[in-house]
Amino acid sequence: MAEDRPLSVGSLTFQPLFTPGHTDTHHSYLLIQDGISRVFTGDALLIDACGRTDFQSGDSTTLYRSVHDKIFSLPDDTLVYPAHDYNHRHVSSVIQERERNPRLGGGKTLEEFIRIMANLNLPYPKKMDMAVPGNQKCGECPENAPEELRALCDVSVQG
User: Fold this and answer.
1) Is the CA virtual torsion 101, 13, 17, 153 positive or negative?
2) Beta bridge partners of 14
3) Boundaries of each Metallo-beta-lactamase domain copy (predicted)?
4) How far is CA 71 from the centre of its chain?
5) Is 95 in the same domain as 24?
6) pLDDT at res. 159
């Protein structure tokens, strides 16, 4: 996916925004429809948080620059739709995240962000050693996947 090649789905046109940092290939997608701007941020920017940068080719400096240069530069009223939220919230706005996001907003410097991310002390995700290679191969099961997970891979690849 390249920023100069919009993605069309029916009558909708999404503008890719290359926002690496959570992963090295991460993209967010901007949709402007009926005068309303929406950005689908995946894990680059979450509501009051952001995706972790300690595995899967993550990089705190890159994520900080991606969010500040590509997402926080959008109009204030742009609606932010993250990939998920652990508190069951579904939408935020650029101005809300720019002003109050405890990791990236409120004028946080790059150095502050790097320190915050380095001190999250998050547990290592279960099955991460199989999930990341599977993601990188677009759903193909990695060789080290146990048999009970291979069945799930086979279903996802077959559709």
Assistant:
1) positive
2) 7, 31
3) 17-84
4) 11
5) yes
6) 47
